[in-house]
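debug: dumping io for the single-chain case to check the tokenizer round-trip. Nothing else runs in this session.
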Amino acid sequence: MATRREFVTTAAAVLARPDLLSAAEPKPLAEVPADKPIRVGALVFPGMDQIDLTGPFAVLSRLPNATVKLLWKATDPIRDYRGLGLVPDAKLADAGEIDLLVVPGGPGQEDLMEDEAVLSFVTKRAKAAACVFSVCTGALVCGAAGLLKGKKATTHWASVQFLKYFGATFVDERVVVDGKLVCAAGLTAGIDGALRVAALLRGEAAAKAIQLDIQYAPEPPFDCGHPDKAPKEIVATQRAAFRPLTEKRLATAKKVAAKLGVEVKD
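debug: decoded output
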């Protein structure tokens, strides 16, 4: 797990010099001065899983001196894959500058994997952003955009096997930080990841205040939130339910690997 020591650098250089972030060596995240606004741009799309957005939103919208915009191709309302309506604030073309790019996941992620308009947006904005934060299978979108090559990453437990097709190394942790890339595992891990991002960009005191504000003190009734802990029969049932989407994601991941020039031995 990354330590605060690994993030010691000046945020002014990170935010004011996007060219530094495109260098071969990943630049560590840095705490941003309080008087420096943080502009958060969060991708939304049909068929996403709303908690990948709304969990982190509860945290990031409370960051001191920060604004959050929901971004999509149009500003018409979209629905997540369970039917919840969400309203984008701006079109991708009108996003403005972004310091923190948030990429959520969900079944609708599959439609973005070869969407050149979306991938181009993610690639371009990631270069200039101080931090890129993926949640759940949003990591696969980042992978298709070429952001995971040579990186440590995580995603939803049913999709971790696809990370290698994007040149990433899977790390079995709830939140993985590699340079300015922060990846949260499935769904609710987005809250953990957002708190980590908050601590890195605004300091631990600010992140702790947010955690208290949202009363994030999870006490799940069952110790069943990871396939290593869940009963084998439940894991098998869930994997079977995921199988059609998993097979589709595998086919897409192989196509993306060929496009990115990533060699994978199955």
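debug: round-trip ok. Residues 1-26 have pLDDT under 50 and may be disordered.
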